[in-house]
Amino acid sequence: MTPQTNYFQAFLATVLQTNLNECEEVSGTGSYDCQGADTGQNMFFNVDTFEPLIFNEGYRYAVEMYSRFVMASNCQEQIKNGEKCSRKTAFPTGRCAGVISMPGTMTNLLREGGKYAPDPAQLMESVLPEGEYWGRRKVFPGSRKVVNWKKDGLPLEDCTARLCPLAKDGINYAPFFAEGGESYALNGRQSKPAATDAMWDLFTWLAEMPVGEVPLAGIYRKSQLTDEAIEDLATLWNNTVMAEDLNDVLVEYFKSEEEGGNSVQDLFIIGFPSYNEALDTELHKNLILAPIESGGLFNMDDPSKSLHPVDDKEEFDERYNRFIKDLATRYDEVNAQQDGGALQQLSLWRGALDISPSKSKEEICADLLVVGDHTNFDKLECLNVVDLKALCQSQKESVVAYDPDACKTEDNNSTIIIAVLCSIVGAILLAGIVYFVYKRYQSYRRIRIAHEQLMEATLNESIRALHSLDYPLHLVRGEEFASEGKLMRHEVLRNTHKLTVLDSLADVDAFIAAGKHVVFFSHQWTSFTVPDPSGNQYASMCSSVKSLAKEKGWDESLKDVFIWVDYSCIPQANASTQNLAIRSLAAYASSATFFIITAPDTKHADLDDVCDLDTYQKRMWCRAEQVCHSMRNGTEGMYLADANGGITPVSSDFFNDSLHVFDGELTCCRLEHKGMGACDRQSLVIPLLGLYGELFRAKQEFENGKGGNAEALTSVNAFLKEIEKQQDEVFPRTFNRVMWRKNKRIEEEVLLFGDLIDRMKARIISGGGFDIDEDAENVGTMSTTTKGSDSFLRHGSDFLRHGVVHGSSTISGGSGSKVQIETAVGTLAETMEEP
Known about the structure:
Elements: H1 5-16, E1 24-25, E2 32-33, H2 57-71, H3 75-80, H4 87-90, H5 103-110, E3 145-147, E4 156-158, H6 193-208, H7 227-237, H8 240-253, H9 272-288, H10 313-337, H11 341-353, H12 361-370, H13 374-379, H14 388-402, H15 412-423, H16 427-466, E5 473-477, H17 478-483, H18 490-495, E6 499-502, H19 505-513, E7 517-522, H20 536-552, E8 561-564, H21 566-569, H22 575-583, H23 585-591, E9 594-597, E10 602-603, E11 610-611, H24 613-618, H25 620-633, E12 638-641, E13 647-649, H26 652-659, H27 667-670, H28 685-703, H29 710-725, H30 727-730, E14 734-741, E15 744-751, H31 756-765, E16 803-805, E17 811-812, E18 818-823, E19 826-827
Parallel strand pairs: 7-8, 7-9, 9-12
Antiparallel strand pairs: 1-2, 3-4, 5-6, 5-8, 10-11, 12-13, 14-15, 16-18, 17-18, 18-19
Helix pairs in contact: 1-2, 7-8, 9-10, 15-16, 16-28, 23-25, 25-26, 25-28, 28-29, 28-31
């Protein structure tokens, strides 16, 4: 073998990682279903504190096993002779009983004629029993002992069914695939078109090569493991056994969590080379391969007398403890070299592992205070990101436990008044009281002004949200959507260049003006981990969009139809970008030209419930999507996908329930917001407030004689009247939220809309600003005022919608004709003024 950090980590992985998600025993089967909450298990750093996972019995056990393999390997002879300890030079001698390597290099070690393979004459095949074959592969290593993450001290215990739910025959496997290979990149911004096309052809060629021909044999994918691919590989190698062995190993490595896999993620964060170098230096150069007289384990004179972790336990432990201390110091130094320090690294690591629920840096630090971990709170330098006085409002006890003075209020004025009262009487006492009242009044004024500023900022933000996207709109072309065979994950479509990206609402308007149709699919997930495991909803989506195309007379190939559906169009792997996209969900729904609800009767994969139209309509996010679309576009383009593959227009009775968005069910409320900073209800205030203001403004401007379509305004008025009849139910002023703090259940009344709806009406009625000072051609669905005959209501439409009218806009079509984009509150050609 060759001593390398990735080989040591392969030993370590099987001891530290048993299951990435919480598991429940399937009654009566002896097997476990592992689809619960994230466990946070990994082999590098704690996901709450970023402490390196080296202070436990499991780490020592892995070092012990790995060092014993190194001492029993070719390193005994090569290190003593002053040579580099390398499997690539040792294995060709034919003296090795086995070899530890990654699959790519292993091929060149085992295949006859391989770069590092022994000469056939040197193979010790004579010692093999009849029927056995030289050069077999096996998934390695595994461990019968693992760390128990649920016990204090993280003890090392025997692998049981409950402790190792994914084990095979009592052995825990945790494949760590750190294969080397070649990297390629394309600079699309600077490359000439011919060079770009050539590089793209190269990427495509590499992606289609069989596994036996890929450079360094180090680029693998599941498509290479089909029966046909393995047969081709066996023919290429002229060796069926070797091809089938490679298949068995890679199938195990590629298993997803849903398939019973337990693969370990590499340290994909900034600074990875520095962390790796620190481990390599301390483990190999300063411990295992360092001479005994220099504090290491290796006996240069007689390698067989190197320190043994069991036979020489006392000396081994003394050197091991120094190794752990030095490694922790080196890791701290690497953290200090990164921008943002250990706290930033922790945030990146949680994102790389896709830990749910996601946490901001402030939430990470606040949670450390809740559990009383003041050491790591200081080590992460949390005082740089949290305000203790602000935390006093929500978790006073935990803040006081850290800093007893943090929540004390300083009232110098009161102290002065008390001193005056003790020394002066009469008129001075009266003056002191007046002064105190005056200061209290000033405080009240400051609070009142701050509240007013907050309300105005919220109104301004709701208006801004109408005109911009926090995250670009991603769409899937209809013909590609229908050909995929199932709902595809966003990252898969992104990496295969099957997503159309619109960066601003101006792009959306121009896109629709060019004759493209955007269809928004609204549905509920029928599993905790994937949206549509049965495929029922996908089949319904395909049928309904084809029915819509036929009804509207579109090209039935769906080449001009573009689909939005959450799993494909919102990032799934990166929590930060996912949150940005969710913040833009209201804009996505309101920007679509058509809206289809897909809710076929389907059994929930993780519950006993049946998901149907009734359960769909109970979900708050489903209601929110409907309302966001209808408040901009009305219900004319909204349909229900029926059981026969057709579509039915949404009825007004159905939409009456949808208006009560905030009565809908939410997962965060069901979980009582454990580990969460806010309720999802709060994230909808700004988009719904802005959309309501847009409708109300349209009504006011028409009534004030500033243009508009009377027939369209009739529908707008009816919609607004329905809202106003039940305003406090549609836009609740407050709501009751249940939170958990320091393991205590707290129920509290939280401000939601407050008087924001009334403020929005008052601003519009008074002629106050509903505008943002930006360059009109960069804004999209926004302008300031309606002028002349250019109405902001599209002729013939029942609501405020996308559309085009011929005019003097600066957006030009491909033929040179100019198209004016119609928007909810004006046209793109107008100049915006700051309110």
